[in-house]
């Protein structure tokens, strides 16, 4: 099995993190992988917001927690110190497909660098809020965006699990 | 750069194919990569229909062509001999995200095996038609599915192009 197929089979969504921050260099590589994902008609309509500022990360977690209606004290980012929010142009009909492809590349890139990651949802609801629209403006993102998802990134706390068994009856040939 | 990051940067969407059919073994590896993509809550709601039967492939191309309103004689599958349709459970709210992640893994897997691929849209419209709903039934796919996309797969005809330049102003840090 080549290294790409191996990474695809071994990657897992990790839900427990050490507090250690990944290097800026690794985060940049992960984002670069997202930028090189295919996009419909080569539109490149996806943007990336890498959040490592603790206060912003914690506030986003708080809002995400409330949207999700999670139990008190539960961190929807599972302790991961870095959160990369992925958004795409609101008016682009294929934004969800394009944003998802970016997130998929980023998961594999993180895994290849020895980092753990997990897609966390509710970015759509967050970035409909004035507070986070203001954050985008502050950072210089012009235009209107829909939140597609977050990739939380960090070092796995505990053993890296094996992939769950795949369900049968999902593949057909003609 | 590790092999995974390299594959991510070098993969391209290819729009010209030789008629040669990829091996069943390689198609299986590509589908396996799709099956190992993350899915929301580990739902594994995605199914894969690998079409190598020429008549079925050509009929799907014809319908895809008509939905797209393309110029006469244009093959929306660009001459690729194999088409893997990806669908996901219609009632699952996160089906487009999950199906897209499967397609992204498949693109990288194909590239890693020396094969070319390209996402082709309009699977949603196709699989709303009785004709292709009947095909799913014939193949034994129970339930209701939404078409997410097709991955066309084959050998690139002509030089494998370099990735287009990435647009500026897509990455922000906080």
Describe the oligomeric state of these chains in a short phrase.
homodimer
Give the strand content of chain A: 15-25%
Strand order of the largest sheet of chain A: 1-2-4-3
Instruction: Could you tell me the CATH topology label of chain A.
Output: NADH Oxidase
The main pleated sheet of chain A reads as:
4 strands, antiparallel
Query: How many beta-strand segments of chain A?
Result: 5
Overall geometry of chain A comes to globular
In helices, the fraction of residues of chain A equals 25-40%
- CATH-derived architecture of chain A: 3-Layer(aba) Sandwich
Q: Give the averaged pLDDT of chain A, no decimals.
A: 96
Name the CATH superfamily assignment of chain A: NADH Oxidase
Domain count of chain A: the total is 1
Stretches of chain A where pLDDT is under 50 for at least 5 consecutive residues are none
> What is the CATH C level class of chain A, in words?
Alpha Beta
What is the radius of gyration of chain A computed over CA atoms, rounded to a whole number of angstroms?
Answer: 16 Å
Please trace the helix and strand order of chain A, writing H or E for each element. Answer: HHEHEHEHHEE
What structural category do the secondary elements of chain A indicate?
alpha+beta
Please characterize this protein's 3D structure.
The first copy, chain A, has 174 residues and is an alpha+beta fold. Chain A has one domain (19-154): NADH Oxidase, CATH 3.40.109. Helix content of chain A is 39%, strand content 18%. The first copy, chain A, has 6 helices and 5 strands. The two termini of chain A are 26 Å apart. Chains A and B meet through helix 1, helix 2, strand 1, helix 4 and helix 6 of A and helix 1, helix 2, strand 1, helix 4 and helix 6 of B.
């Amino acid at each position: 099995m080549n290294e790409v197929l191996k990474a695809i089979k071994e990657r897992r969504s990790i839900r427990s993190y050490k507090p250690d921050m990944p290097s800026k260099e690794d985060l940049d590589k992960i984002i670069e992988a997202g930028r090189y994902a295919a996009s419909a008609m080569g539109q490149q309509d996806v943007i990336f917001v890498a959040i490592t500022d603790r206060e912003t990360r914690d506030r986003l977690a708080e809002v995400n927690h409330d949207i999700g209606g999670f139990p008190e004290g539960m961190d929807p980012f599972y302790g991961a110190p870095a959160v990369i929010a992925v958004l795409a142009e609101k008016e682009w009909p294929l934004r969800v497909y394009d944003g998802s492809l970016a997130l998929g590349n980023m998961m594999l890139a993180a895994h290849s660098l020895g980092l753990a990651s997990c897609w966390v949802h509710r970015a759509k609801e967050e970035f409909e809020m004035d507070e986070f629209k203001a954050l985008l403006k502050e950072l210089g993102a012009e235009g209107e965006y829909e939140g597609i998802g977050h990739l939380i990134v960090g070092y796995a706390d505990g053993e890296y699990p094996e992939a769950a068994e795949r369900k049968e009856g999902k593949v057909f040939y003609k």
